[in-house]
Specification:
Elements lengths: L15 H12 L15 E4 L2 E4 H15 L3 H9 L2 H13 L11 E5 L5 H12 L7 E6 L2 H11 L10 E5 L13 E7 L8 H11 E12 L5 H23 L2 H13 L3 H10 L9 E4 L4 E7 L3
Parallel strand pairs: 3-4, 3-6, 4-5, 6-7
Antiparallel strand pairs: 1-2, 7-9, 8-9
Helix pairs in contact: 2-9, 4-5, 8-9
Length: 302
Amino acid sequence: MLRSLVWRPLALRHCKGATKTAQKAFTTSTLRPQQLPGEDEQTTHFGFSTVPAAQKEAKVGAVFSSVASSYDTMNDLMSLGIHRLWKDYFVRSLNPGSRNSEKGWNILDVAGGTGDIAFGMLDHATNVNLDLKTKVTIADINPDMLAEGRRRALETPYGNSKRLSFMQANAESMPSIESNSLDLYTVAFGIRNFTNKDAAIREAFRVLKPGGVFACLEFSHVDSALFNAVYKRWSFGAIPLIGQLVTGDRDSYQYLVESIERFPTQEEFKAMIEDAGFVTPGAGYENLTGGIASIHRGIKPI
C-alpha cells in the first residue's frame, strides 16, 4: 500500500543537466484555469456551491473554526486512522534534516493546523538525522487552528523551543517570508481549501531556495472504478453523519467531502505545479491507498 521511496528531496541540487532539460519541459505547459464551467473570474467553488471568490476565505474559515478542537479525532474516524500512516510516510519520504549541515533546514508547513506534520518533521530531523538545527514554521490562515497547534505543541519537546514557530498567514501572499529562503515547503490536506491554488503554488516557488522542495499531501482521485464507488458511498454517506453525531456539525463535514470531490485530478494538479515553475521528479506524484490521497512534489530549479 505504501511504497518506499528512493528519492532524496534535494537531490537535484547537483543535477544541473536534468534540471535544465526539465525547465524546457515545464515552460511549454498550459495553465489550468481555476474557474469551472459557468463561473467567471469573480466566483469560485465552495464544495459543490458556486460563491463569490471574495467570500470563500471567510466561509472556509468558519468551517475550520468549527472543527478545530475535534479535527484530529474526526480525521481518525473518517479515515479509520489511516491519515496517520499517510502523514508519517509523507514525513519519512521527505527525510527532513541534515547530518552534514551546521544550519539545518528551514521548513514552512502551510495550513499546518494542529501541528502533526511540523512535529513529525522535527522528530525525524532530531531522531533520524541527529539534526538539532532544523526549524519549522507553522503557517495557517485560521487563528483557531493555530491556537490548537500551540496547545498541542506544549505536549511535545518543541513547545518552548526556538525550532518551532507559528504565524497567521494567507498562503496566496506571504510578504513576511523572504524570497529564496526555505529548504522545504509542505502543505498537508489544506491546499484544496485555498481560494486561488495557482497563486499559492507560485508563492511557494518564490519563497523556496533554488533546489528547494514543494511537497503536498492531499486527498485525490481513486484509480479504480469499483473502489471509487465504495469510497464515494463512505464519504458522502458516513462522514457528514459522523460529523453530526460527534461534533453536532454536519454542514462542515459535508463541505469537506465536497471539497475533495472538486479537487483537481493528479495529472491536473501536477500540471499546476509545473506551470508555477517547478520540476516534478519521476511521475510527479505518488498515490496512496489506491489514490484516496496523493503526494505531489516539485523542485525549484537551480
